[in-house]
Amino acid sequence: MTVQQHIINLATSAKAACPTIANSPVSQRNEALTKIAEALETSRAALLKANELDLESAADAGLDAALVDRLELNDARIDGMLDALSIVRSLPDPIGGIEDLKSMTSGIQVGKMRVPLGLIGIIYESRPNVTIDAASLCLKSGNAVMLRGGSEAIRSNLVLSDCIKSGLKAAGLPEAAVQVVDTTDRSAVSALVSLEGLVDMVVPRGGKGLIERVAREAKVPVLKHLDGVCHLYIHAQADPEMAIALALNAKTHRYGTCNTMETLLVDEKMIDTLEAIAQPLLAKGVELRGCEATHKVLAERCSRASAHDWDEEYLAPILAVKVVSGVEEAISHIARHGSGHTDGIVTSCHQSAMRFLRAVDSSSVMVNASTRFADGFEYGLGAEIGISTDKIHARGPVGLEGLTSQKYIVLGDGHIRA
Amino acid sequence: MTVQQHIINLATSAKAACPTIANSPVSQRNEALTKIAEALETSRAALLKANELDLESAADAGLDAALVDRLELNDARIDGMLDALSIVRSLPDPIGGIEDLKSMTSGIQVGKMRVPLGLIGIIYESRPNVTIDAASLCLKSGNAVMLRGGSEAIRSNLVLSDCIKSGLKAAGLPEAAVQVVDTTDRSAVSALVSLEGLVDMVVPRGGKGLIERVAREAKVPVLKHLDGVCHLYIHAQADPEMAIALALNAKTHRYGTCNTMETLLVDEKMIDTLEAIAQPLLAKGVELRGCEATHKVLAERCSRASAHDWDEEYLAPILAVKVVSGVEEAISHIARHGSGHTDGIVTSCHQSAMRFLRAVDSSSVMVNASTRFADGFEYGLGAEIGISTDKIHARGPVGLEGLTSQKYIVLGDGHIRA
């Protein structure tokens, strides 16, 4: 059997499970999450053993350290998976509720019911915890799911697959509702994202290369973000202490995350504060790459930014710094160089805050807060399947709601159209 | 200049107008709609003259009668465009509002702001009124728009383009925000739907051939529906009089619309009512194509349905009729043969109504109402840009909201992530 045919078979059986999972009561979906957690607890030793083999293969293959770190499981990380299952179980049922039921002049009542999308595909790298996170979010929202993890994690993922299937079975739900793709063949990804009519949405999680490939090849809708070139703009009426603290947190809280600030925009009227903003960043070892005006202030403590620095997602202790003439230049700089992920303003001026909020076309726009808050947990979604910088369907951190759709429902009492 | 380069130029200038239209106050967008209506009133004679030339060319080219009917303008149809402008103007501003602002435990407030998508492409056939309808909906929702009408309506559409541009100018908004594509070259459609990064969404309106072509070629998101294979299921506990009236209205109110019933499902316990349901349909000249059980009752008044009748969108006085064993068979028949557009149940049983509402995966699901109600005006949207049977983004009749997106906004007071 070809890889493509194998993927079609897995997707077909997952799709066949959709009506059952979609129409199951939330108590049954929660029961499945409980049983998956129990199976995971029972399988701790087997999982750690499988992960050890994955790690050995990764070492043999010379995988880079960051990838190996993400691949590694230990008791704390397994506890994290159990926590995730517990959190998702505690969230309210995202489907089946009827909203906005209104009476029309014709006499009919029109409302919306939230329903699952159907079959979701998740494509990800190394972290085995995504297998549990994604499966639990999809199940809770009444979807079936195809999980395609990295080949480096295949042994760990297959143990997790067994836990998930046994949990589904114990709760009386079809095991086929969650399919961990059991082939490491690279063409499985291409096959999965081509299944129009079978797969309703694909969520790629991982490096930019993976996401670009999925977006390019996909024939089904893709929920994604490519870059996080996030900005913080220090407005003329910013509180200096707040500006210093926010710039430091947005850049140095974590360097490798997509909501980390990559470019600092400083209003020319705040030029006297630039020194004080730069100091703690430099003390943390952040390399500053400044425009000409920045360089005048910081001299040899900052290198000169080249044209391409304004478009760079460093994911590292490097920060581009640019002095701008005001809120309008900040907005247009972000429009030109930003990635539509997360951008913030620091200001005490209400009008400037509102102007920035409205005009910046990013998935998260912030006033007087660190860009690092752009996250499903911080936004109260309970959990996150990913972040979307697309404008269609779901935007920003995506939780259970982004895995659902709304259909119209009409209630009449024999109403006909006149 | 190639057609492709011409379309890129039009789109680039429309895209450049996006920030201005997106950030304009609703009073200015409404003023533009008023000024477009005034220009349309002033241009009545010129528009009718241009339309006459379009009709002459259509006659010379031997266009079919239905297409010519849709192409024709008269004073009543121009009044209809003026009404549409007035209705859209009267709708509340769909953008800029902040919803669901909630305080998180971290201290930040998180909410959502509704914002325009950016640049919309509309691809349609013959009806010149779509030019005004679509332009007004896109402008009201703060979007720029590329309008690609049929070549048969090009002269009419160019007069309407002048009206729109003069209205935008009079309101102080950029004329480039609405671009009526002025070439009849067929490759303009392919060019338009390929503009990733410039066009944010495309809405094709017209025959199935057009929509399939757009969906196949598009590299940008498409809001669409292909078929309307709509069902009405007469449940065992249906009120017979209601069943008769709803079946008649759903089939015969209009034959050519996408929300017209194409298959009637009759519960086997209602077999005695089949005669009474069929009678008024036959009296209206509807051809019935029945399953074996239907045929037993109606004999020579009904032809035998072939396998493909269950998948047919007749758009004509033809109705497929099938006797089913109960609500579960009705649901599975619809899942297999329906197009996800609109399906209804007639029943007095609450449990069956709720089961049907939840389990039928269509953009509109109805209880005791005619499928003909699936429409933006009937649903209180004020106006409709189209109907979507996709599950991603917008589903069912799409009004102003479907032309918008939501971004997260975060309000802090110097909050940093711990």
From TrEMBL, chains A, B:
It catalyses: L-glutamate 5-semialdehyde + phosphate + NADP(+) = L-glutamyl 5-phosphate + NADPH + H(+). Residues 7-275, 310-374 form the Aldehyde dehydrogenase domain. Pathway: Amino-acid biosynthesis; L-proline biosynthesis; L-glutamate 5-semialdehyde from L-glutamate: step 2/2. Gene3D superfamilies: Aldehyde Dehydrogenase, Chain A, domain 1, Aldehyde Dehydrogenase, Chain A, domain 2. Its EC number is 1.2.1.41. Belongs to the gamma-glutamyl phosphate reductase family. This is Gamma-glutamyl phosphate reductase. It comes from Candidatus Paraluminiphilus aquimaris.
